[in-house]
Design brief:
- By secondary structure, the chain is of the alpha+beta class.
- Helix content is about 30%, strand content about 20%.
- It has one domain (about 1-50).
- It binds zinc ion.
- Zinc ion binds near residues 40, 43 and 45.
């Protein structure tokens, strides 16, 4: 599983993640070349973080 998040929603997203997945998640910055073209689906701010467990 892999989820994109903006700066505003990253904290909230991590809470939801822990409830749903109950597992360690890895947070990384979105690659520079995807940054400007990727928007968070909830709010349309630019995505900064990728949360993943794979
Ligand atoms: Zn957002």
């Amino acid at each position: 599983m892999k989820v994109n998040n903006c700066e505003t929603h990253i904290d909230q997203a991590l809470d939801v993640w822990v409830e749903k997945e109950e597992s360690f998640s890895q947070i990384s910055f979105i690659p520079e070349d995807e940054k400007l073209s990727t928007k968070h689906t909830d709010c349309e701010e630019l995505v900064l973080y990728v949360v993943a467990n794979e």
